[in-house]
Amino acid sequence: MASQFSFDVVSEVDQQEIDNAVNQARKEVEQRYDFKGSSTTIDWNPKDWNIVLHTSDDMKLRALHEILNSKMIKRNVSLKSLDYQKAEEATGSSLRQTVKIKHGLESEQAK
Known about the structure:
- The longest helix is centred in the N-terminal third of the chain and has 17 residues, at 15-31.
- The relative contact order is 0.21.
- With 111 residues, this protein is of the alpha+beta class.
- It has helices at 15-31, 58-74, 107-110, and strands spanning 41-45, 50-55, 82-84, 88-90, 94-101.
């Protein structure tokens, strides 16, 4: 009986929707007063499936998380596909954080 029935589990994230969400987040960061004068950037690397957040302090980094999460939700991208790595010190006493996009299932998760 089990040999007759099977199913495939697929976990894919639409790359274009991520690109749209990142572009919307960039526009919001450019317009917000609390980011004026800071060197805050959001970079999307579609080849490596990661987003790099770069800002001047921890408060702005948390605000970037909120902005990015809200834009992803509006574009119907699951927040479970975002894997926030540990924030690290960058040049000029700024912070850099990588957000990896989970696409596909690892064999352990699929079991």
